[in-house]
Amino acid sequence: MKQELRLDDAITAVRDEEPPAGAAEAAAGRVWDRVAQAANLAAASVETIRGCADVQALLGEHRQATLSGPRALLVEDHLKECAACRAAFRGGPRLAILPWRATTAPAQRAPQSARRYAVAAAALLATGLAGLAVQRSFFAVPSGSRAAVQSVSGVLQRVAAEETPALQPGQEVGEAESVRTARGSRAHLKLRDGSIVEMGERAELSVSIRGNDTTIRLERGNIIIQAAKRKTGRLLVASNDCRVYVTGTVFSVNSGLKGSRVSVIEGHVRVVRGGEEKQLEPGDQWATGAGMGNVPVSQEIAWSRDIDQHLALLGEMKALRDKLATIRMPGLRYESRLLGLLPETTAVFASLPNYGQALSDAHGLFVERLQESAVLRDWWSQADPVRHGGPSLAAIIEKVRSFSDFLGDEVAFAALVESGAGRSPRPFLLAELRRPGLREFIESELRAKPEGDGPPVHIFDETTIGSDATRKAGVYVLLRPDLIVVSPDPAALRLLASRLAAAGALERTAFGRRIADAYRDGVGLLFAADLERIAAVAVHRPADAEKLHASGMDDLRHLIVQRKELLGRAHTEAIVAFAGPRRGIASWLAAPAPMGTLDFVSPNAQAAAAFLSKSPSLVFDDILALVNTDAATATRGLAALESKLDQLRLREDIAEALGGEFAVALDGPLLPTPSWKLVAEVSDAARLQRSLQVVIGKANDEAASARRPALSLEAEQVGAQTFHSLRSAELPFEIHYTFSDGYLVAGPSRALVMQALRTRETGASLSHSQSFLALFPAGRQDHVSGLVYQNLGGVLGSLSGLAGSAPLTEQQRSSLDALSRDAKPTLLVAYGEVDGIQAAGIGGGLDFDPATLTLPLLLERGLKGTPRRARP
To answer: What is the DSSP letter of 289?
Structure first.
């Protein structure tokens, strides 16, 4: 025991002993001399290694591995310590080298006091505690599973060292455990944060969690991820050559031998590869290498079997909407007392009926349908806010209905904009009261609300609204016997309260009179904006004012948009009013006139858009003015551009060669290439064709210098008609066009162009279709300035029988039939007036029918197995 104590004392003494100054340096020198003496010092160039110059003289022999072992050891040891010699060894530039000398002997350390030891210990403890906190927050490995198997079609295996057991729905996957789908198999995993991962065949991945972050390690294969929205942490997908950072996003990652490809379906993602970083938006795609290439996003996810659920769910939504259509909605309103209470500084006014009872009835029908439909129940089991810690929908609906019972027939939103640049708008919500007791109801709800749930609510009347208490943060409520006003801005309530006595101030302004005119015809939903007042406070800099003036938008005065139901059909109307005759961009839409472009579109077209514009040469002038408000600079820039095009004059040779009428349509099969049509009025076909040849020629010159595929422009005579074709390996389709009777007609194939010509010759066109003409608003002008038409519901059924597409199941076909059976076409038309633009739509106008939402899903199925066009 004594021997052990003596040994401990000796070790402690050695550890505590401090060598004399310079002893360590002297010992290092002696070791270096001994190693150098053992080396082969017969080299002709360097006999003794004394410094950097000697080491650099031996680098050539060191590269060729001809130095002796000890001498090579000395050189390698020096290269580890000397950055200059390392740079010289790697072929870098030689640097100015100071002579190699011994390091300065360390100063004798002063005795350490107990206080300094205590400070060091405290710092060490604090650092350790901070490190522990960081480790627990960001690097801790939570216990429990990482994912649960939701469904398996085929075989899903857990990849282990000696065995690969099959996984069944309900089983869990642990930290970093790899799972793999077999050939022809699919699987759905649900991660701990609620994200859903759909695995394609032969896909392999693992999931790990560190702190609040979740990482999916994709070894190979294709996956589609529906990332859950999360308040903390992030979801990361790591493939072999890139990382994808997301939150609340739907996207796919495909990892193969040639690299990885990321495709975004919804939301946005951030992709990182090495030092490269890229943001992707919906529809975007990014590949880590040229070998992966790009494919349509619909083709990338066509393997997904969720199309069955999507079609069935949309069918249920269609049935639910039909039920909701039976609910009695509030009628039209022909006057508004709320409008008469607003001051003249009101710049925004929006009005809607009191939907409280209708909302309660709709919820009752929803609950009834939920009991009848397994598909709807399955969807609601995932979408129910209660499942995610939110409130019950039934409880919310009941509170809204109870609150609405106190309100009148109309609820309005308004914003006051005071004069002066930079003034912020003051928003508020207001409604009439139909019975007393609202204050007691609100206070009762506030008492039942958990503390800290939502912002504080402050209730005032006209006698207390001016008190200092309104400086607190939260939501402010002004209650009068006949009125309630709610705003996050107490100044807005004080301002409104002070001006309520001046009733009718807004109605005496031009903006107020336009709103009152809308009420005379009856309104359902109404939105109005005083664009002139808004622009006056929004434009701060003279440069912005100049650009706004050049665009012609500084003449904007008012915008009125309304939607209402008449005889079971939705009507949408909009009015944009200007202070004077339209100019700049606002003048591009021409006055109503006869249209000829729709004569080339068949009555079976799924969608079409056509419009009349003022002279394209004048539009060109407006664009030039917008690009640069300095006319001299714009002229010089245009001249420089035209000099690169062999003095082709863009205004005279292209803009003046075009007329003022254009149309684009989807008129024929959607697969494998959509049957689009482009029709444009032409005033000089020969000049336009020569200009196109010049532009394509110059484009090919640049393509040759960049080693890109060239464009091929060819012409072929068929009888009296000349057909032109434009092809390139970079184009997803060919472009064929011809000139006929003052129009350019283009499409993806010559057959479609010829069909357009025949449609016009026979007169059996969309412009003569009675069902199309019946959609035009009654009592309007004989002609329009522009229109947008869709009739997509009629083509859904035809997609199921396309060659090359996967056949629909009986369930899918039934869902599709239910969706397309009652799909209605819609039409939105526009009229260009001297000092305004009006738009009107019947059949919903801008509304969307659930049937049209199935189109992308069916296109995915049709594209699956459809061969891509061969490149020329």
So the answer is: S
**CATH, residue 267:** 2.60.120.1440
Q: Rounded to a whole number, what is the distance in angstroms from the first to the last CA of the chain?
A: 92
Q: Is the peptide bond before 672 cis (omega within 30 degrees of 0)?
A: yes
Residues 797 and 836 in one domain: yes
**314-327 pLDDT, tens per residue?**
567 667 777 777 88
Pairing mode of beta strands 213-226, 836-842? unpaired
In whole angstroms, what is the distance from residue 352 CA to residue 72 CA? 87
| 463-477, 594-608, 701-715, 827-841: least confident range | 463-477
The mean pLDDT of the chain is 78
Residue 778 banded pLDDT, cuts 50, 70, 90: confident
Kindly state the helix (H) or strand (E) to which residue 751 belongs, with its residue range: helix 750-762
Q: 277 — phi, psi (to 5°)? A: -135, 140
Domain count, the chain: 4
Task: Round to whole Å and give the CA distance between 372 and 320.
Answer: 11
Say how far apart CA 319 and CA 327 lie, in whole Å. 14
| Confidence at residue 308, expressed as pLDDT on a 0 to 100 scale | 61
The answer as to whether 468 is a domain residue is no
Q: Are 756 and 746 in contact (CB under 8 A)?
A: no
How far lies 814's CA from each of 25, 119, 139, 552, 721, in Å? 89, 78, 51, 52, 46
Residue 638: its H or E element: helix 631-643
Q: Are residues 601 and 631 in the same domain?
A: yes
Cβ distance 337 to 218 under 8 Å? no
Both 160 and 62 in one domain: the answer is no
Q: 279 and 330: one domain?
A: no
pLDDT tens string 342-378: 888 899 999 999 988 888 888 888 888 888 888 778 7
Give me the pLDDT at residue 137, please.
46
| % of the chain with per-residue pLDDT over 90 | 26
Q: How far apart are CA 298 and CA 288, in angstroms?
A: 19
In this structure, is residue 767 part of a structural domain? yes
User: Does residue 25 sit within a domain?
Assistant: no
Same domain, 296 and 374: no
Q: Has residue 618 got a pLDDT over 80?
A: yes
**Contacts for 359-365 with beta carbons within 8 Å, 24 or more apart?**
359/397, 359/400, 359/401, 359/404, 360/397, 360/398, 360/400, 360/401, 361/327, 361/328, 362/324, 362/327, 363/393, 363/394, 363/397, 365/320, 365/323, 365/324, 365/326, 365/327
**Rounded-to-integer distance, Cα 290 and Cα 276, Å:** 15
Shared-domain flag, residues 289 and 346: no
Which of the two residues, 537 and 313, has the higher pLDDT score? 537
Closest of 500, 423, 859 to residue 674, by C-alpha: 859
Same domain (yes/no): 604, 519: no
Task: Decide which of 250, 272, 305 is a domain's last residue.
Answer: 305
Domain stops at, among 305, 333, 354: 305
Residue 607 to residue 793: CA distance in whole angstroms: 10
* Residue labelled with tokens 């129910």: 384
Query: So what's the pLDDT on residue 501?
Result: 56
Largest CA distance in the chain: 120
Q: Does 306 score more than 90 pLDDT? A: no
Looking at the structure, do residues 522 and 569 belong to the same domain, yes or no?
no
* Alpha carbons 329 and 354: distance in angstroms, whole number: 9
**Residue 723 lies in domain:** 562-863
